[in-house]
């Protein structure tokens, strides 16, 4: 089957090629109907009979716990590619990608069943690796759409991104949610664009739509509401923590991310909003970003 995410074509082949049937309902709006001769940027082959001894790990890049300690993930390098290993309940599952290939192989599904959460996250990691050299970034944020343009709310978990986007939707007429966890951003010509994606965290918002980015906004909690536009140096610092964390430990991937962000902030403003969780904060941000003062 074929899927299009952020204008990148993904193809699934072999067993478990229907990702919706595997439990990934978020991929349904991204299905490409009918055949296409277009070359995919990533081909996914699940239930692959992988010989693990063929992948001698040379360097571990990053290890982390999944949310609520569901599993442990580890991104590593072998001599000619990347391997992502997920550990859960005494078992491990891998996804591999050769440097000179767009094919991602995984032993997920070899026993006939696919762990939905592991599959969702494994594809997200590998998709991020594939699109980084092409200018794409899966960025941790909640995205609002107002007047046909996107505002990305960024911040550490618990800083109130979802609350702030809800306040916009409640108090600023015509505001919609595009994605609540991991939209894709990329430059198209000289315009920074944001795309809905099959990954949307706790809020199931899977929208196959793209809009130009009006602005990025990093949130922090405060006993007052104050917003300011950031200069180029502080703007990069505000955006990088919301990019895939594992990539910060892999120089080639981080270079691609920084190059893409540099292009974006040259044309798109980045703000910092210190705020309370109230309507005034949403109105202040809206009036500043949209020039309604």
Sheet of most strands = 9 strands, mixed
Percentage of residues in DSSP E strands: 25-35%
- Using the CA coordinates, give the radius of gyration: 19 Å
- The total beta strand count reads 17
Number of domains: 2
Order of helices and strands: EEEEEEEEHEEEHEEEEEHHEH
Cα-to-Cα separation, first versus last residue? 48 Å
Give the integer mean of the pLDDT values.
Answer: 94
CATH topology of the largest domain: Phosphoenolpyruvate Carboxykinase, domain 3
Q: Do you know the CATH architecture of the largest domain?
A: Alpha-Beta Complex
Indicate the low-confidence ranges by residue numbers.
none
Helix tally equals 5
CATH class of the largest domain: Alpha Beta
**What class, by secondary structure content?**
alpha+beta
Helix content: 10-25%
